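Case study.
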Amino acid sequence: MSRLTLLSLQLLVAVVAIVLWQVLSTVPVFGKILLPPFFFSNPVDVFSQIVKWFASGVIWKHLWITLWESILAFVIGSLGGVLVGFWFARQPLVAAVFDPYVKMVNALPRVVLAPIFALWLGLGIWSKVALGVTLVFFIVFFNVYQGVKEVSRTVLDNGRMLGMSEQQLMRHVYWPSALSWMFSSLHTSVGFAVVGAVVGEYLGSAAGLGYLIQQAEGVFDVAGVFAGMFVLSAFVLLIDMGVTMVERRLLVWRPTAADGRG
Amino acid sequence: MTTTAVALEDTKVAFRLGDGRVYTAVEEAQLTVGQGEFVAIVGPTGCGKSTLLNVAAGLLKPAAGSVKVFDRPLASLNRDAGYLFQADALFPWKTAIDNVAIGLEIKGTPRPEALARAQKWLTSVGLGAFANRYPHMLSGGQRKRVALAQVLIRDPKILLMDEPFGPLDAQTRQVMGNLLLELWSADRKAVLFVTHDLEEAIALADRVVIMSAGPSSRIIGDWRVELARPRDIFEVRLDKEFHALHREIWSVLKDEVMKGYAQSTQAEAV
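After joint prediction, the assembly is written out as follows.
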């Protein structure tokens, strides 16, 4: 299938869904409107809400806050994950001692931490960053831990035979291996950074996309809720495209499924 | 050739298995490699020939006996040796030229100089135009060439090779064999070359050492290969002397191969 037909088919899905939504929420079928506007709003209202946000410029502030929280959560969570992952992988005893606690904390649904963070860090951005960090940290941590532990024995021996010291092994073998595992989970961890930010905002804040959605919901402004959702999806999509670009740059040395040559 | 590069004296290698039993891989191996000598070790699968090589590299400690490198006992890693592995050992996150240059860079050679010399080595293994490819973009044979350059750029006095051309197809193996002989003849390092291919061993080496089937395998034969150098691997195989020697060694090796095969099938049945 050519790129063009694929793209037009993808577009068609969106068009059909939006048209159906518009028709079902405005035109009665057998004397009854299937999607009552109070619960489902309609595409035109949602769209005009989005336009209003962008035209008046209020949305930028919220987008910026959410983006900033996501970035902070991602950076802090990744940094912590890399450091602790490295430490645990190189010190099996430490890993064994902390193992049950790591599992315990990781099993905890992070949402329940939100009130605690709000209490500790206030309603500003830091309570959201903290929530994102708890999500990102574990993804990066587990990947780096795995990456360091699963360095190929042969590659390691080769490094030793080439005369590498422990420090040089760290730099030329363990580190790139761990980073490659971390980057392979980049999509997931960036996604979770955004989730942490938005959920945190939704549960209590004064700005951000989550706040916007929560506010609209509070006054039964369904168009506002949907508009917030669409802006959020577009926002995540853009970030994801950025991540893909970064990934292509960083993982050039990795074989892709397309050129699986022995 | 008075000095010995590597000497294994009554070397025994044993491993402790998971259930506490001790598995003796190699029993009292006695082997010397002279300076500038090309020695090939041949044996059936699982006879511990790679194990012996790892002992010579210092990657494994022998359970008994000693290893001497240029008459000094080997305490840790063998710093005089370059090791060519059977499996892919290139750093996948480095380009071909970076993979070759790394051996110099870790010794503190400035990067521009290391890169220039790496480029020269890539050219001499026939990959001058592939400097910026990552290992996964190269074929198996090309990766072996890079690995060879990676080892040789450090100019080790001893070359340890563990079935280096094992994963390659038959033609590529012969091409690689000729390349190895050509590079080796330039400065005649001591070589310990492990293979299960007797023809390859005779074609390349000055001496062929045969090991018995494992466990507790030992060295059971040592033949001198008197074929003239420089050799061409394609042609030396047609030589009468080559055939005579091959027949002689094979008559010993054959029994061991059958023994090794019987043991491996038994082990699977248990």
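Observations recorded in class. Chain A has twelve helices and no strands. The interface with chain B takes residues 152, 154-155, 157-165, 168, 172-173, 176-177, 180, 252-255, 259, 261-262 of chain A (CB under 8 Å). We will return to this complex in the next lecture.
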